[in-house]
Amino acid sequence: MFTGTLSAVITPFKNGEIDERAFRELIEWQIQSGVQGIVPCGSTGESATLTHGEHERLIKVAVEQVRRRVPVIAGTGSNSTAEAIRLTAFARQCGADGALLISPYYNKPTQEGIFQHYKAVAQAVDLPLLVYNIPGRTASNILPETMARLAEIKQIVGVKESSGSMEQASDIRRLCGDRFVILSGDDSLTLPLIALGAKGVVSVIANIVPAAMRELVDSALAGDFARARELHYRLLPLMRAMFVETNPIPVKFAASLLGKCTAEVRLPLTPLSPICAERVRSVMSEAGLC
Which of 179, 184, 211, 202 is nearest to 74 (CA)? Predict the structure, then answer.
């Protein structure tokens, strides 16, 4: 259902407020460049600092701007199950095609708690759901055995896997089968994960090089690994540069260099440091982007 290159779209800010015009133009450019899905209000979209009203508005605007041309998978996760249900229900009401839910963070639920959390959302809202496993942000890892239990729930169609473990991804694929979609949560691991059976990526660098990332994924999915490797190594410096500081600080700076939006982020995130800004600028220059 959700395959290929999905963009983890940034949230442009201007003078402390959401820059809706820039958000719409960014989405439009990415669709015209070939991305196969838009994912608003995720980690890259700074969902943690959005008010509930802003969160809902961004989902609504994304659905309006996309106009059914590609799927919209709205970020609706929370460490509160009740809040995750409310946000997911709103996304369905707006016409989103699916929802991406981060595993509950900070309160560190057990594997059973994680399972019951997703099960409760799936039972409450009739919408395809993607699990988001990113232990570096949540302080817990969804084990492959738990993922296999989740895969048995009809509404839960796949996972954005960001554990960084090829062994874990292999076990998820082995235990869950081909029906359960694995999407890479790390641009630099997209190629190896597709080799293991993943179906695409929720991409950060699609915010700045959507066409190139689409070609990499398409090549890998088509079995043209020679071309996919060529693109992987060409884009690798850019992939790494987007994480010289906490995401999305570098990618918003990069987008500002392209004139797509300001580099503004919300506290507790801070502007890219001068030394890291120079590194991002240099990598983008070498890639012919600025």
Answer: 202
Q: Does some domain include residue 274?
A: no
H/E stretch holding 131 reads strand 129-133
In a domain, 234, yes or no: no
3-state secondary structure of 4: strand
For the full predicted model, state whether its pTM sits above 0.85: yes
Domain count across the chain: 1
Q: For residue 28, which phi and psi values (nearest 5 degrees)?
A: -60, -45
pLDDT in tens, the chain (290 residues): 799 999 999 999 999 999 999 999 999 999 999 999 999 999 999 999 999 999 999 999 999 999 999 999 999 999 999 999 999 999 999 999 999 999 999 999 999 999 999 999 999 999 999 999 999 999 999 999 999 999 999 999 999 999 999 999 999 999 999 999 999 999 999 999 999 999 999 999 999 999 999 999 999 999 999 999 999 999 999 999 999 999 999 999 999 999 999 999 999 999 999 999 999 999 999 999 98
Q: Which domain holds residue 87?
A: 4-222
Q: Please identify every residue annotated as catalytic.
A: 132, 160
